[in-house]
Specification:
- The structure is a homodimer.
- With about 450 residues, chain A is α+β, with helices and mostly antiparallel strands.
- The first copy, chain A, is built from 14 helices and 18 strands.
- In chain A, strands 1, 2, 3, 6, 7, 8, 15, 16 and 17 form a nine-stranded mixed beta sheet that branches.
- In chain A, a hairpin with a 2-residue loop joins β4 and β5 (about 110).
- The longest helix of chain A is centred in the first third of the chain and has 20 residues, at about 115-135.
- Chain A is globular and about 80 Å long.
- β11 of chain A pairs antiparallel with β11 of chain B.
């Protein structure tokens, strides 16, 4: 029944997903505030259209949507919270997109557009699974609450407060999140750890205005050079972060994890080729998967300063600015990392320039159990719908809210990613494989049944 | 007669200068190509309007204007070439201008707008002096040729070829250039040396597209960080340029120069305050004036890469780019410096990123005699019109064409600057003091007479 409903309505679902993707719900850019609100409204209306009780909660940031199935009559019916986010990354650089980022296009079994895989397409598979139960009047084996936020790409600030305030109301036995990727399209995947993040802005101010580099050059510090020196001093020649104390709280990778990662088929050359680099680079002493999944990073996300137009402009720029993010692993604290980086930069910054540091927030890494009851149910659901036993991996990306869920809601967190490594998250030409969307809907329906049976 | 003519027509001259400044003749930006052509046409028409023979020479770049007075009947009349440039620096950053950069405004005896002092206002003073001779039918004591180019701010490429090809036609006994600044408004100034320049673009390419900094972070070199490391490695902690061989051809400052510079009233604190910096910084072992006038530099003019909008974007950027200029002193060669910098960067660049280097050209420093016949005439003219004996200084800025003039035209080069240190060359709110424009016209008329008398 459910399987039939899903396959009969597939075309309609994809059209609905396209509608959802047409909202340029870019949380990082204030200009898109209206699009964010319109996207949330559309979603609320959509959840209501197949019988969920929906509430849109305004916040200081973007609205949070909570949609619940009506409570099952059985008293001990397990409860499942399905998390997702309707905000997306900025689409820039626009010139590298093969299609407009907010005009989704289906091509060769793939749906292209910003948000296709991160995260609209993924959470939508769960939405459609629940719809299938309701529309086919199949009894739902669990009570489901959807919790869909609009600030994941900017640190989930509002949701963090929301979850803390409404912990009792949101409490669930299982928390299901599809906001990760499969190891490959042949490897259904359960993720048991994600990295955290600490984000900062670094600004170096020199002269009060751009100066003629001939008339004044040599007598005054170049703030862009000073910035380059500060940034360069943060990572040493072996790829280790040179900020004192940075590694103090890092939980080392366990033997079983390192052994397991090594068993995964990972082709370094194909990976380098896929990224378009001549050779890989990272912290000495670790494999590529270990570096991506289990080690912290210091990354410059962007830099700007002085003249950037065509030709030359012979100036000493007035200032230079960089955006930095550090990926964190258990048990690093974003506040401490930010403090350490700030102290270090202040210590090494020369007095001839002015250093400005701002926090863009952060959150801790997540580390769950690879052997809980919910994870075992997900393994069954994945095997049944993808035809293979899942692999257990960590994830280099961050899900800001997981640590908050863990601390405040208490249920078992299950990360079943439907993305693929080549989905171009945060990059131009983001896409979702529609085969994964199809299997994802079925997997979700199966998972809800398995979780219901586990009670 | 001449003095009366100049003071009677002052208002009209300033209006004409404003017309000239309204052309956004930005040579670095291809979008302004039409404005360049329109500006050259306006000038040609203007020179013709008071009786000069004008020719506008098309080039591969921007037109070169040559305007001649009709030859004086005396056979041994000295010839004077007056050089200037009608192109200007880009006006960016626009938000720091107190007025639109190409809508000149007179305020408190100052004329504000891009090009006011660098160089439209300065060469225009000479134009008006010659006009005064012609309109008052005062016999011109010298034959004057104006040579006005449109690529000074981008390296004078076309003029360099032009001067080489037409050396015979342009040859003059004296070459007068007002494209420098006075030491202060109380110090009429003769400049006997300027710095050269070598300009380059450095680009570091990493992954073929921006990557998710979580999913991929740690396994691939960050090209902006790699760029920062390369740039940081170019200057050491003592402010010395760390590129091997960089100083090999530097002609050391002479004792008499260092002694003379020390005699000039120079207030470091006032200078730092003027630039808006807390403290000055430069190569150890040299005074501020020595660093500006007699030592080479390594300057980053601009840097760009990755996400630069509001908030954060958690990417590893695909590339980073910087613009670099080195100011050169005698006897450094721009080609050799560019080669040394390129070799050094290639040597230290890791293989995990791709290094791209492009040349933006360069030219040698100029070093003339502080005691030639023309310079002595200029000293007389300055004393008579500014009421003080001039000081002899070097200049940190560059005049690309001087070395070419010296090598191909052979006349004595006289640098009599009418700019002031606070004229904001290459910066927002460029201006010219109209008192200097007034005295400049008189000084020019006097200089032409003195040069004529020197025959």
């Amino acid at each position: 029944m459910i399987q039939e409903y899903l396959s009969q309505h597939r075309g309609q679902f994809i059209e609905q997903l396209k509608c959802l993707m047409r909202f340029p719900s870019v949380s990082a850019q204030p200009a898109h505030r209206r699009d964010i609100l319109a996207c949330a409204d559309w979603l609320a209306h959509h959840f209501g259209s197949f019988g969920l009780d929906v509430k849109l909660y305004p916040t200081k940031g973007n609205p949070i949507l909570v949609a619940r199935t009506r409570r099952a009559p059985r008293a001990n019916t397990p409860s499942v919270l399905v998390y997702g986010h309707y905000d997306v990354q900025p689409p820039e650089p626009l010139d590298l997109w093969k299609m407009p980022p907010f005009e989704p296009v289906e091509r060769g079994g793939k749906l292209f557009g910003r948000g296709a895989s991160d995260n609209k397409g993924q959470f939508f598979a769960h939405v459609k699974a629940v719809e299938a139960y309701l529309k086919t009047r199949t009894p739902l084996p669990v009570n489901v609450t959807f919790l869909i936020e609009g600030e994941e790409e900017v640190g989930s600030t509002s949701l963090i407060a929301f979850v803390r305030q409404r912990a009792r109301q949101l409490r669930a036995d299982y928390i299901v999140v599809s906001d990760t990727s499969m190891f490959s399209k042949d490897h259904p995947t359960i993720t048991y750890a994600t990295r955290g993040i600490a984000a900062m802005g670094v600004r170096v101010d020199g002269p009060s205005r751009d100066l003629h580099s001939g008339v004044f050059g040599g007598s005054v510090a170049n703030p862009v050079l000073a910035l380059a020196r500060l940034l360069a001093a943060c990572v040493d020649a072996r790829g280790r972060i040179a900020v004192p104390g940075f590694y103090d709280d890092v939980r080392p990778l366990q033997k079983w994890e390192r052994a397991q990662f090594r068993r995964l088929p990972f082709d370094e050359r194909a990976y380098a080729h896929f990224l378009g680099v001549h050779s890989l680079e990272g912290e000495k002493g670790y494999t590529t998967l270990e570096r991506r999944w289990g080690r912290p990073t210091f990354e410059i996300n962007g830099i700007t300063g002085g003249y950037q137009g065509p030709g030359t402009k012979t100036i000493i720029p007035a200032w230079g600015e960089a955006k930095i993010t550090c990926r964190l692993v258990p048990d690093q604290s974003p506040e401490k990392i930010e403090r350490l980086v700030s102290q270090y930069l202040r210590r090494i910054c020369p007095s001839s320039v002015k250093l400005g540091l701002i926090s863009h927030g952060g959150y801790r890494a997540f580390h769950g159990s690879p052997s809980g009851r919910g994870v075992r149910a997900a393994a069954v659901a994945l095997k049944r719908t993808f035809g293979r036993k899942p692999v257990f991996v960590r994830e280099g990306g961050s899900l800001p809210i997981l640590d908050i869920f863990k601390r405040h809601l208490g249920g078992e967190i299950i990360l079943v990613g439907l993305g693929l490594p080549d989905d171009n998250w945060h990059s131009p030409n983001e896409k979702m494989d529609l085969a994964n969307f199809d299997r994802g809907m079925l997997m979700s329906a199966t998972l809800l049944r398995e979780l219901g049976a586990s009670a």
